[in-house]
Amino acid sequence: MVWPRKRDIGTSYCRILLHDTMLNKDSHRTGTSDTPIYDYGMEEETVTHLLFCCGQYNDVMTLSTKSCLHMMLNSHSAINYRYFLLHHVMTTLPKVIIIF
User: Second label for 3, Cα 20 to 30 Å away, from 10, 17, 34, 96?
Assistant: First the structure.
């Protein structure tokens, strides 16, 4: 596992992996939120929702997705990243269709 150089980014990443964010889904599970539902919609507020589905952050989401895909597909171990991306999308977001 590769950790970022900036501590705050590494901390956020670790909290995501441990399901210990302040998003409503995690907060509801720990008792600090009344509901797991997103404040502006009818879906649960999860990391997947925030990063891939949230309409509030479309511009940021598009830019970050393009940047991540560019880094993954152009890295020295692009085959592993392509497999990881395909596996993640197929298991987490079954509605998405990817064409390589």
Answer: 96
Question: If you average pLDDT over residues 5-24, what whole number do you get?
Answer: 85
Whole-prediction pTM: 0.56
Whole-angstrom Cα distance, residue 81 to residue 71?
9
Dist. CA 31–CA 41, nearest whole Å: 21
CA gyration radius, the chain:
15
Which residues does 32 contact at the CB level (< 8 Å), separation at least 6?
22
Of 1-5, 10-14, 42-46, which range is least confident? 1-5
Sorted by where each begins, the domain ranges of the chain are 7-92
pLDDT for the residue numbered 90: 57
